[in-house]
């Protein structure tokens, strides 16, 4: 079962690998194109698409052996489909079945980012000759998705969230986690950077996809949270605190 199947590429991979039958659930019009793609590639009898929301549709089978989904969002869980994947797991996954991916971790570190901060935040001081600096406060409150260079990281990293897809519940996705970061060089600290990795433990060899700074660039990039000011740090200093994450009540996605 592919949750949020889109064009059906994961169903095609599974069918090519020898799956007896593949089901894809997708709520948009793209299922019509996915169906034609499956037929044109010789898998029309192997792949079945069901249009609708995961929470509302029914499958022609009671259980599936594997659930696969590219559910990850920015900051791992922002605008993600994980809630729907967990619903599908609880309803259709056979006992002992596999989840792909089956584990995920969210990491954070502190970075020096003076030039970029000035470019993105300081920009509002001079907008075509106008002082729009009141916008800076609003911009500072919003996480920024961008590619961060590995050299910008000025501390070690710590894991603030670890998810086992076989056991995690929706309620676990709102969390409070402590962090402790040790500064690795004398520098200014301007922001926290977050990234994630997901692993496929049930595959042949534990395959890991990592979105950390310095790794191959992905459309997820990294997530940057800027401080109001900057922190003057010496090598060996410790930055510690708590991070609290919860879904918006108005828009849980």
Structure described in brief:
By secondary structure, the chain is α/β, with parallel strands linked by helices. The chain contains 5 helices and 13 strands.
Please, could you describe this protein's structure?
This protein has 253 residues and is α/β, with parallel strands linked by helices. 18% of the residues lie in helices and 36% in strands. The protein has 5 helices and 13 strands. It has helices at residues 9-16, 30-40, 82-92, 114-120, 134-141, and strands at 2-3, 22-26, 47-51, 64-68, 93-100, 103-111, 144-146, 158-164, 175-182, 187-200, 207-210, 222-233, 238-245. The longest helix has 11 residues, at 30-40. It is elongated, with a radius of gyration of 21 Å. The protein starts with a strand and ends in an 8-residue tail after the last strand. The model has no long low-confidence stretch (mean pLDDT 93).
Give the overall shape: elongated
Quick one: biggest sheet?
A: 6 strands, antiparallel
Overall pLDDT level: 93
| CA(first)-CA(last) distance | 22 Å
What value does the Rg take, in angstroms?
21 Å
Low-confidence stretches: none
Q: Which key phrases capture this entry?
A:
253 residues; 5 helices; alpha/beta; 18% helix
Task: Lay out the secondary structure.
Elements: E1 2-3, H1 9-16, E2 22-26, H2 30-40, E3 47-51, E4 64-68, H3 82-92, E5 93-100, E6 103-111, H4 114-120, H5 134-141, E7 144-146, E8 158-164, E9 175-182, E10 187-200, E11 207-210, E12 222-233, E13 238-245
Parallel strand pairs: 1-2, 2-3, 4-5
Antiparallel strand pairs: 6-8, 6-10, 7-12, 9-13, 10-11, 10-12
